[in-house]
Amino acid sequence: MSQRHLLALFNDFDEAVAAISELRAANIKGFDFDDLILKSPIEHPEVETVLGDRPIKVQWFTLAGACMGGLLAFTLVASAQANFFSQIKAGKPIVPLPPDFVLTYEMFILGGVFITILGFLICAGLPAKRSPLYSAKVSEDQIGILVKGDEAAVTAFKAIFTKHKALEIQEEAGK
Amino acid sequence: MGKDIREDIAWAQINKDVLKSLENPKKLYWVILLIAIAMVGVAVGCEIYQYQTGMGVSNKSNSHVWSLYIATFIFWIGMSHSGTLLSAILHLMHADWRKPIYRFAEAMTTFSLMTAGLFVLVHLGRLWMVYYVMPYPNERWVWPNFQSPLVWDMFAIATYLSSSVIFLYVGMIPDLAICRDNIHAGWRKKLYTVLSLGWEGTDRQWRNFRITYLTIACFLIPLAVSVHSIVASDFAMSNMPGWHVTSFPPYFVAGALYSGCAAIITLFVILRYVFKFEEYMTLPIMRKLVRLTFAIAMVWTYLNLIEFSSVWYGHDQTAKDQLIFKATGPYAPYFWAMIFFGSILPLLLAFKRFQTHLPLLFVVSIFLNVGMWLERWMIIGPSFAHGHYPWTWDHDQWPSLVQWGIVFGSFGWFTLLFMVFCKVFPSVSMYEVKEMVYHRTLALKNKPAVKGEH
Amino acid sequence: MIENSFNRRDFLKVLGWGGATVALSGCGNTSVEDGREYVTSYVETADYIIPSIGTYFNSTCAQCDAGCGIMGRVREGRVLKLEGNPDSPINSGKMCGLGQAGVQAHYNPDRVREPLLRNGDKGEAITWEKALQLVSEKVASANPGSVAFLTGGVSGHVKVLLKNYLDAIGSDQHYVYEAVAPSVVRAANKKAYGVEMPRLRLDRAKVVVSFGADFLGTWVSPVHFSRQYAKFRKGVNGERGVLVQVESKMTITGANADRWLAIRPGTEGILALGLVNALSAAGLTVPAEVAAAVKDYTLDRVSNDTGVSVEHIGKLTALLKDRSPSLVIAGGAAEGYAHGSQNAAAVALLNQVLGNVGKTVEAPASMPFPQMAPITGNRSSLQALNDSIAQDGVKVLFNCGANPIYSAPASMNMKESLKKVPFKVAFAHYMDETAMEADLVLPLNSSMEGWGTVVPEYFAEGAQLNIQQPLMEKLHPGTLGMGDVLLALLKQRRPAEYSGYEDYYAYLKNAMVAIKGALGGENEDDDVFWDSVLSQGVVKLTSSSNALVSSASAAGLQLPPPAVEDGTYPLRLIPAVTPNMRDGRHANEPWLQESPDPLTTIVWDSWVEMHPKTAAKLGVVEGDIVEVASKNGAIKGQVYVYSGIHPDVISVPLGYGHEAMGRYSKGVGANAFKILDPVFDQQTGELAMYETRVKVTKAGKRVIVVKDEGPAGGNQSGRRIALRMASGKVNLAEEV
Amino acid sequence: MSITNLLQNWSDFRQQHPSDERPHQEYKWAMSIDLDLCTGCNACSVACYAENNLPAVGKEKFSHGHSHHWLRIERYWHNEDREYADQGAQFLPMMCQQCEAAPCETVCPVGATNHTADGLNSQVYNRCVGSRYCNANCPYKARYFNWYDYPTTADVWPAPMEQQLNPDVTVRGKGVMEKCTFCVQRLTVAKSNARTEGRSVHDGEVQTACQQACPTGAISFGNLIDPESRVAKQWEKQQVKLNHDKQAKDAVHDGDKLRGYRILENLRTYPSVMYLEQLREGAI
Amino acid sequence: MYRFLRLSVLLVGLIAAVGSVAVHAAQPLTTADDLGPVVDQPIEFPHDRHAGDAAKGGMQINCMYCHTYARRSNVAGIPPLQKCIGCHRSIESVRETPRIKKLFEYWEAKKPVPWKKVHDLPDFVRFNHERHIQRFVFAQEKPVQEACGYCHGDVKTMTVARRQKPLSMGWCVSCHQKDHPVSATSTKTTHGPNDCWQCHK
């Protein structure tokens, strides 16, 4: 059964939220609430209350990256210092801890930052192809709600969107 | 007192205003760009000459092995710190006034780091062997010396540069999407399309974006502090009198923030004028910035005094001799100029009427940076001239034109990068200004009665 | 050590020297570079020549007349470095910087490489055959008596050949000139002790008082005296020797003295006699005649005349009386005056009074082969040449090892004088000022390429004969040894006697083998003897020595009162002989130019040294360019101010200011020889070097003096770097 | 470089130096210089030029502080405002002090300078990138930088002068730091010869160029480990301990009978060169 | 939806793979017959003829018979022309071959043969043949050709020698790192020196 996308644009954020709550409550057949995507020009953390629990996992990447970076740095640096050419320098030990900790620290951060970014790209699904329906307005000042549902659900969507003063409703062409 | 950003400004207007700065440049832009290129040309010429002839043409000596290159290196590293400060710390503290100005501050961070990095290369006697410093498995089976503060520097700066580029870029993704949506042809379109990674402002993207941005900001603050304290360790770890001082790392960090803030003021004035950003880079923001600068100036002055007095009061006669030499010897004019520009001149910033006087601030901020540059030179020059070993003192060693040429050119290089950035990327964060406006509107809605000055 | 089967002279025939791979790019980013360089490849070789291992050959240093034994390190056919020959009694394996720089004389890029014949202003390269032919013609066409040789100090077999050549042509005109030589002291010593230069035993003395003899730096045999100085300082039973230096301008010896006494110039003799008087008053037995002669030299008068404080004279008297034996030496600063002979005689008298003769002043060994003994040079000989030229007595002049146009005072007008000689031949190493004027320039081998024997001017122990042998193949095929040239010339004159010798080497070997009995090889096979001589480098000769005159006599001692100040020329000029430059003949060796002067640390330039008081009076500071003008000329130089000089005196180093010679010396500094006043020692007729009166005026802008010391000067700013303590606190006998 | 190596030899890698527990094994090259014998004649310095391929840089470059004398003679005055320098000067030969804990070593980014097993401070020219940090950190300023490419500079080694260059010592190109090596090329040869004969180097078997030239024998050089060597005896006699930064004798008030000291010892560099104080007679 | 997870994993994997290849490539232990360039020598000297196995027509001359300096000097050296002639004077059978004729031409002109270095280390490296020969040939009693061959390759099969080993620093170290017995009979082992100045001058 083919699915269709529908994008509604709102001027007012509150209306958009209301639309979402209604979509959720309406329990439309052929529409999975998780397929609803909110698009906004700025971040709206408030919307989470209506969108439900969508977990963030970036911080685990950060933790892993930082630990790995630090650990790897220390091991690599220390074992590089302890190679065959290990030479005494200025009476300091071959594997001197303060310098190694400095490097560990730096690499801890670098690992953290890099893997965080990796995590961000993975979790946010970036880089991504553009979704089937997108309006440049969304990056300007309007709120967009993108839903995906069976042909049958389209009318229900439209009704809800119109009710909440959607400025525009775009439909996927063809198919 | 100028007006602050209007809460009722149309978001579309924000887009329009900022995107205008990306439009075809005017004549003045080209003039500046050409001047910058010419400056870089001078520096490249000097460097080629130095590379082929030998480091001797920069007129350093065996007792005076470092000079302006390292001083300017620290200067640029220092300059880079305020971008991070403004952006990361104020972001964590939810100080929303940072929003219109942090983007160019971060760009400044990145570009001054890129400038600083060049000085490391310019400074090397055997530039063509620079890869020896990199830790990579090689056919010689040897590694760099991880004990050396220079290697820490390399790690720290590489980390800082990559992290701040990432920070700058991540923070720019939503704006790049705006650019992508509004520019419809040419290489820019492709560029923005690629760089915006298909950003659509979905809730999932925003959610992860928020946490990522916050995390990197958290990382950047200790990183920035560590970078400049490691640069300070280049000196503090050594046994040179006048360098071997415990207060060097914080002193360097304070100095870095100070020169960075001063540079932000300078660029603020320039951008506000050139791109007509009066609407966003407002005077109240400037006032906050100036107050911040003043505070840091005083911290710096304090640390400077601490350094001097600990040398003076301590029992290391060698360091004391050197301090006296700095203040009375051939370097005295520069030393006192540094004190004047660094500690006396910023007192002007304490006066309310000067805090929004842009022409004055422009001039003062440039002088503050001159002072801060002198500070770095005063760390290098006189120390080498008057070290541990009296026989090798060397009071007559002044940098040659080659050195000045390269230092001069570095400003051109920075300007060049910055100018190009301003035309290619939005130098005011559109989505965050929108956020700022949105939150203020919300606040107004909720508590209409309170309407303070800021 | 040398194999007979192997031709000694070919030992260095290596595949070019390029085969030895001169590494000029040692620090490139190079890895393995196959097939680009050549392997060191020999045709034949001796067992002891191993690639990459240095072989040492003994020879003799030719940088000055002291005759130190050297070992040249030879590797892959190149001589790399000179080291002292431990078997040479003169230097016992040690060397000075001047000697070390010998390799730079050898490898110098400015050496003359082929015979040059004057053609207008230019030299035209000709072959040796043609050159010798020309010489032969010129000599033949001249009146036999009008052929003259002007040389520096010569000794050994070259001297013999030279003598024979002059005999062969029937001339007696051999002039030996050295610009800086202790000729007055020699003459005075001859009078006082009966020998020109007694053997000085610093190592036995407990006190050494030197009247301006820079024996650690430049005087007679500095390396030998430095060896002795070390023993003197360590002392017998740990009693450290005390050195007192009396002079108007500090020398390096003065810089090492326990007490450096700045004396009014020219009053050295007065102080010496004053000391005699004081010693006599202190109870030392002094012959009545002497005591009577010196009784006018009271403490106050002497102090007044010399500027040395009564306290120091007293202390010095006590020291000399208490610590015996002592040694008093008269050197350049004492002899350089019109009454220089008197000064030197007064100093000798002091030695005799102190009873040092026979203890620390010993009779020198005599040379058993007087025909090889060195002829020492002086300036009056040059004067004689000048006179001879003026009387048209010189038609052909050979010049070797002397550079009078550079080093004779302007008043002698040597350049013009030499122009009168129709044919001048210069044996030259460099195109120096005198060679530039020559009609024919014959390039000589360096001392590292040629054969020779050298008799040192000052014997450290017994008499000795030094061997000079090649340390490498000739660098330039167009050069020849002095011995070879003389031999060739002699072959023209006395073919019967000399045509049997293929070259100077053959002559030398033959001559040495002929006297092997006297050289301690009477029982040896000729070749064995010869090889052992070559491998030792030094042949010790059995010799006798005569007793010295030890009785003191003040007869004929006439010391003038201190000189009166000249209003127009208020200052005295001391032309300083520095350890690096000496008389300037090695000015083209860059190591010596780059080696800082020990006292001022100045490099690559000359300077005008003065006391802070003088500087204040003249209103100048360090780096000011001043003009130093005497009646005979003026030079310019940078001022250096320090307190190692008497305020009545300024000093300019000798050896700089060459107008020719080469890239490292030409135009560096100013030539102080030029402005010396023609004042002569009354007894010997030698130039009184320290008698020049000058005035100093500011001339030009201030420059930064290029020197090694930093702005702190000799100040340590309270840091514990160079420490000093009183000698009484240390027991040297306990030290290792 | 493996983690097992790291773990197994951890205590070795954590060893501080110099320490009593782990002295040098076979050789510890050291020097002592008697300042009472040094006459400042510069023979050592010129010998060093000859041995170690040092360029004579010329006046212009010398004036810019680009001199290359690995061994320089310093001349100090002790005449505090007296009219004459009437106690003479004090000469001090200063070269790399081959510190046991050399400040230059830690700071080199590429590890071009290290402490060798023989107690020398090595400088590997080809590893050097020319950051000059080592000299910045050297309290004695005994390191010299190749500010120009001397091998190709006019009049530094014009033909045939380059033939004098010692093939045992690298000719340094531009941008490289260099310093006194204690004539390591000679030490290597001596050690190799001794090794072939199955012994260790005798005292006096190897001399540095400066020691060899010094006319007064002010410089002695040898193996500090060998108790029979002159240097070891001198150090012992003067009660100067290699691994102390404050000598016990300095605390004793009447300890001034000993004149051995090391320069700037308080910086904890543990130099390998001991100087003996200059003496001056009080009776005159 | 999480397809970019794959991309990232791929990226990480790629970096790791490249890295490990790099590390592996950095093990400079490769040897190859044609590692060094062909060096044109004035006389095409047949090492195989002189040192090769008897079975293959060689004369099995000890390397150090000609390269006599190896045991007592830094360099192995080239024999003086004298030495070549010493033997070849009495070997009439090959006297008229072009190479020997050339050899005698040099001898008669008293000119050394300009042999080129085949194993030429950079000028800042000090390699001591004596130490290696003393250790491996005299102390450990290894066959000469094996000991020399470790660095010089299988010279006895070549005519003009050609470099077969990398002679890079890491290559040197790969052997220095190993524990070698101090003598043929001893069980005590030591590794090569790791001191910079041992090899860098």
From TrEMBL, chain A:
<protein>
    <submittedName>
        <fullName>Putative Menaquinol oxidoreductase complex ACIII, DUF3341 subunit ActD</fullName>
    </submittedName>
</protein>
<keyword id="KW-0472">Membrane</keyword>
<dbReference type="Pfam" id="PF11821">
    <property type="entry name" value="ActD"/>
</dbReference>
<feature type="transmembrane region" description="Helical">
    <location>
        <begin position="60"/>
        <end position="82"/>
    </location>
</feature>
<dbReference type="InterPro" id="IPR021776">
    <property type="entry name" value="ActD"/>
</dbReference>
<keyword id="KW-0812">Transmembrane</keyword>
<feature type="transmembrane region" description="Helical">
    <location>
        <begin position="102"/>
        <end position="126"/>
    </location>
</feature>
<keyword id="KW-1133">Transmembrane helix</keyword>
Automatic annotation (TrEMBL), chain C:
<protein>
    <submittedName>
        <fullName>Menaquinol oxidoreductase complex ACIII, molybdopterin-binding subunit ActB1</fullName>
    </submittedName>
</protein>
<keyword id="KW-0500">Molybdenum</keyword>
<dbReference type="GO" id="GO:0016491">
    <property type="term" value="F:oxidoreductase activity"/>
</dbReference>
<dbReference type="GO" id="GO:0043546">
    <property type="term" value="F:molybdopterin cofactor binding"/>
</dbReference>
<keyword id="KW-0408">Iron</keyword>
<dbReference type="Pfam" id="PF01568">
    <property type="entry name" value="Molydop_binding"/>
</dbReference>
<keyword id="KW-0560">Oxidoreductase</keyword>
<dbReference type="GO" id="GO:0046872">
    <property type="term" value="F:metal ion binding"/>
</dbReference>
<keyword id="KW-0411">Iron-sulfur</keyword>
<keyword id="KW-0004">4Fe-4S</keyword>
<keyword id="KW-0732">Signal</keyword>
<dbReference type="InterPro" id="IPR006657">
    <property type="entry name" value="MoPterin_dinucl-bd_dom"/>
</dbReference>
Automatic annotation (TrEMBL), chain D:
<keyword id="KW-0411">Iron-sulfur</keyword>
<keyword id="KW-0004">4Fe-4S</keyword>
<dbReference type="InterPro" id="IPR050954">
    <property type="entry name" value="ET_IronSulfur_Cluster-Binding"/>
</dbReference>
<dbReference type="GO" id="GO:0051539">
    <property type="term" value="F:4 iron, 4 sulfur cluster binding"/>
</dbReference>
<keyword id="KW-0560">Oxidoreductase</keyword>
<dbReference type="InterPro" id="IPR017896">
    <property type="entry name" value="4Fe4S_Fe-S-bd"/>
</dbReference>
<dbReference type="Pfam" id="PF12838">
    <property type="entry name" value="Fer4_7"/>
</dbReference>
<dbReference type="GO" id="GO:0046872">
    <property type="term" value="F:metal ion binding"/>
</dbReference>
<feature type="domain" description="4Fe-4S ferredoxin-type">
    <location>
        <begin position="29"/>
        <end position="59"/>
    </location>
</feature>
<dbReference type="GO" id="GO:0016491">
    <property type="term" value="F:oxidoreductase activity"/>
</dbReference>
<keyword id="KW-0408">Iron</keyword>
<protein>
    <submittedName>
        <fullName>Menaquinone reductase, iron-sulfur cluster-binding subunit</fullName>
        <ecNumber>1.97.-.-</ecNumber>
    </submittedName>
</protein>
UniProtKB/TrEMBL annotation, chain E:
<protein>
    <submittedName>
        <fullName>Molybdopterin oxidoreductase subunit, predicted chaperone protein HtpG</fullName>
    </submittedName>
</protein>
<keyword id="KW-0732">Signal</keyword>
<feature type="signal peptide">
    <location>
        <begin position="1"/>
        <end position="25"/>
    </location>
</feature>
<dbReference type="InterPro" id="IPR036280">
    <property type="entry name" value="Multihaem_cyt_sf"/>
</dbReference>
